[in-house]
Write a structure and sequence with these properties.
This protein has helices spanning about 15-25, 35-45, 60-70, 85-95, 105-130, 160-175, 180-190, 200-210, and strands at about 5-10, 30-35, 50-55, 75-80, 100-105, 135-140, 140-145, 150-155, 155-160, 220-225, 225-230. By secondary structure, it is α/β, with parallel strands linked by helices. It has two domains: about 5-125, 3-Layer(aba) Sandwich (Rossmann fold); about 130-230, Winged helix-like DNA-binding domain superfamily/Winged helix DNA-binding domain (Arc Repressor Mutant, subunit A). α4 (about 85-95) links the parallel β4 (about 75-80) and β5 (about 100-105). About 35% of the residues are buried. Its main location: cytoplasm.
Length: about 240
């Protein structure tokens, strides 16, 4: 088994040393940067399977790093946020992070989050490597090409993170049906929906925001207290 490459951007050198040793025992190779500026440079110059990104750092903070990476940077990002700071979590997701984990965290919980993100990537790669599988999903002007992991809305390219792409895929596969936040959390994030967890809400909001410039109608309807419906075009 080839080691997965992780980039840890965090100014806590003691934590970095502990995580490097722990993740190394689980076949993960970890490169560390201790400020946002060097971390951004490393992320743009090297190929990684996942980036672990702290919020509070010198030179550039985690949000500034996310902004600089932009939508077209495809490496999934797991934000490391302060415990109880919901604003940081939401902002990180809005800026393109795939998931977040509050400090202090248990090492096994971090490992579970990493594995969940990498499973999503593996599912996408599996679709891309099977030419006989259904490679496109096209509903109500939105088209997903699983072979290239590209999304379009009325033929215009839409840049989605890997998590957003998976959320939209599930919603489209269940067009016209309510998909609960709990179902999306388990299938996409790989964990049960926790009370007050807004991750799925933010990912859906991001998808809406990215589709809206190319469409005069909302493609996703919120059913309060139940979940979301991807509209097939004949629903109001």
């Amino acid at each position: 088994m080839n080691n997965k490459r992780l980039l840890l951007i965090d100014d806590d050198k003691e934590l970095a040393e502990l995580l490097t040793a722990f993740l190394g025992m689980h076949q993960y190779s970890v490169d560390c940067c201790f400020d946002g500026q060097s971390g951004l440079k490393q992320a743009l110059s090297q190929s990684y399977d996942i980036i672990l990104l702290d919020v509070m750092m010198p030179k550039l903070n985690g949000f500034e790093v996310l902004k600089a990476l932009g939508d077209q940077h495809k490496t999934p990002v797991l934000m490391l946020t302060a415990k109880g700071d919901d604003n940081d979590r939401v902002l990180g997701l809005e800026l393109g992070a795939d998931d977040y984990l509050a400090k202090p965290f248990h090492h096994q919980e971090l490992l579970a989050r990493i594995k969940a993100i990498l499973r999503r990537i593996a599912i996408t790669q599996d679709l891309q490597s099977h030419p006989n599988a259904e490679q496109t999903l096209s509903i109500n002007g939105v088209k997903l090409n699983h072979a290239t992991h590209q999304a379009t809305c009325h033929s215009q390219a839409v840049e989605l993170t890997s998590t957003e792409y998976q959320v939209l895929t599930i919603l489209m596969q269940h067009q016209g049906e309510i998909v609960s936040k709990a179902q999306l959390s388990e299938q996409v994030l790989g964990r049960k929906l926790a009370p007050f967890d807004r991750s799925i809400d933010v990912h859906v909001s991001n998808i809406r925001r990215k589709l809206l410039p190319f469409s005069d109608t909302d493609k996703i309807k919120t059913i309060r207290g139940a979940g979301y419906i991807f509209l097939s075009g004949d629903l109001s």
